[in-house]
């Protein structure tokens, strides 16, 4: 995000913390698609992504008083809430639903890179088997392109800790995928 | 634990590949010694990609309005920062966020049905920060969601922009700068949404002349109101209102540019032989830039383009065009009247636009049917208290005058010209304005006898009625001659004499 855009977001966040619903609506408009894609990646269903994205923003509005400007970026904070919402969603269901047929990436049938897309799908499924903190770090790092520092600030961990979690998560993913292949 | 060299390499490779500086293969070739360990990890890291999905725009809009409604409800309830009770202890409204978006919408509609005329109507008066404001926004959300095209959505957003402006004015009247600020920002967003849908409608080739004219007229009116609002605003509220004003100004300029471009495009088409088919369109768009704003008797300013469009249909006489123009301005002015629910207002505008379109096609009778429907809807709205006595009387007088003008035009037509030219004279089309053929007339008909309108005047040979405005006359006297103040007659939505004749309570059945 450019400096100007970041400063816009900071201004909106400051106003939203002061109770300005219009400012928070502007933040909703700005980040809705990103959060939606994030949740969709984790759930694989349009209906769940819509419902959970709404929950993310409602919870963010309720918890906004606890957000500390100048710490982690606002979007990283939103992703943390999104992660918790998704985890609770699965916890309520007590099991991880298999990915519905129609919920795979729409690019799956679109081009010649069928193998690549299958691999992306396998990785997505494998991520669900990681520990919760590992899922969070992998998705924030590689899906959302947040830096280790931003992830650390959002999760209340040190950068070193985040790197360790990432390292273990990737090796666990490798192990899971290789076991599947064999 | 320190960083392993593989982790460092992995981060570099991922960053380079995502930035397009290197491919994965190049990266592995550059670090051949670490390839065995780096390769699988890089493959995994690069396989974590965002899904190529985007929220469905309609569902997203619905979700947004549900969210804004919930936001205002929570703001009112001051639940922020407090621990929520479990859902089973919150009652119905606490459980709402657990429902899906479609379920929320259905619930909102059901609530509207159950509370017709009660809370729903009261919510129309709600201001930002008030408890019913969320209901108002939820109702608006349903309106947006049920609009069937981008052109229709642009119309809805224009209505919403007008409502937000009314809220700004009322907020100042009640010395509530916070509400004025919120409404100003929402106004700017509604205008942006309207413009976005207008552009999409244009891109899809949908007819946007009417909405474009409305867009300009609305913005002009809103500009004036915002100018006044700035003067009344305190320091905190001035910035958002200024932003809204600038946004409106930019929208106005872009709308004018678009109208100008459309005029040029139509002009270019007219220069070609095939362009003759669009002769009427050329006349309409090509004159927009030169006309000054017109002040109507209703007190609303109609922009050059709006005036040009109202006067433009080459098939209407000048008095008919002026009458249309005045009616358009009056209906436009109603947008600012908070007593008018948005849905009813849209109905009025739709009928007016249909009348204009019918005139443009040379279907005078269909235009009169639309005016008749407009008159009945006005009566219903007046009975329900949605329109004040003053605007109602003025609107009815305008409708009656316009109807008489159309009837006069018909009377002036020479026998055999403009009446039923290859159209409603056949028994099967009796009473069905939509079947009034125009270009869809019998192919065996001589070209000179073909009804004009869709093909404009350009294809009418000399001596075949091209010398006078071919307003197509009704075959029977119009049922509307005078304003029907206090009329007890029914206000059904008859679509023509043939259909309504003989039905009790249907004005179409009256002589």
Annotation keywords:
heterodimer; A: 182 residues; 8 helices; B: 511 residues; two-stranded antiparallel sheet; elongated
What does this structure look like?
The complex is a heterodimer of chains A (182) and B (511). Chain A has 182 residues and is mostly helical. In chain A, 73% of the residues lie in helices and 0% in strands. Chain A contains 8 helices and no strands. Chain A has helices spanning 3-17, 21-43, 46-63, 74-93, 114-127, 132-143, 148-155, 159-181. In chain A, helix 1 (3-17) packs across helix 2 (21-43), helix 2 crosses helix 3 (46-63) and helix 4 (74-93) packs across helix 7 (148-155). The radius of gyration of chain A is 17 Å and the shape is globular. With 511 residues, chain B is mainly alpha-helical. Chain B is built from 19 helices and 2 strands. Chain B has helices at residues 5-19, 24-30, 35-47, 57-77, 91-95, 101-114, 119-123, 133-146, 150-173, 177-203, 209-232, 235-271, 279-286, 304-311, 318-334, 342-360, 364-383, 389-412, 497-500, and strands spanning 294-295, 301-302. Chain B has a two-stranded antiparallel ribbon with strand order 1-2. In chain B, a hairpin with a 5-residue loop joins strand 1 (294-295) and strand 2 (301-302). In chain B, helix 1 (5-19) crosses helix 3, helix 8 packs antiparallel against helix 9 (150-173) and helix 15 (318-334) packs antiparallel against helix 18. Chain B is elongated. Residues 81-99, 113-117, 267-317 and 412-511 of chain B have low confidence and may be disordered.
